[in-house]
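Progress report, Aim 2. The chain analyzed during this reporting quarter is listed below.
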Amino acid sequence: MEPDPTSEASPASPEREREREIMTWQLFGDSTRELASTIVASGFRPDLVLSIARGGLTVGGALAYALDVKNCFTINVEYYAGIDERMDLPVVLPPVPDPVAMANLNVLIADDVADTGHTLAMVNEFCHGHVAEVRSAVLYRKPWSVIEPDYVWRDTDRWIAFPWSAAGPVAGAGAA
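Predicted structure tokens for the chain:
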């Protein structure tokens, strides 16, 4: 069961900073290479990398290069509204990948973290029945995830500060 976010320290407090897993760009590069090596060692050869936007975009791109996979798709799933703020269920946003285009391919789903695991489970279910084989790879897995990814770089129960999102949006950016 996931910790109650209302009982945690404020996002900017020193206590909260100690609770964070900090990923730097260097660590990201090292971790995706290690993850790719694990995938290769398992014997799985993906024909396509399906990245879950937004956090999985950088992970999927790095894995695709490391695994020499040129066929990359993206699926946009909205579940998080902010730190420790989730919607009731994950929602796939358009455009939705065409399952026919993935027929009979070995698909690697890439994401940054399996937190609750609901997003990864939804995308995994989306692929089943359409592809030859589907496996998933994440940088981090939380102990309460409802799905067990096939490939995991590290386990953590802490909030993760990724290099692509830790600084937040540029001032003035955002929806019009």
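The chain has one domain: 5-161. The first strand starts at residue 20 and ends at 22. These observations will guide the mutagenesis work planned for the next reporting period.
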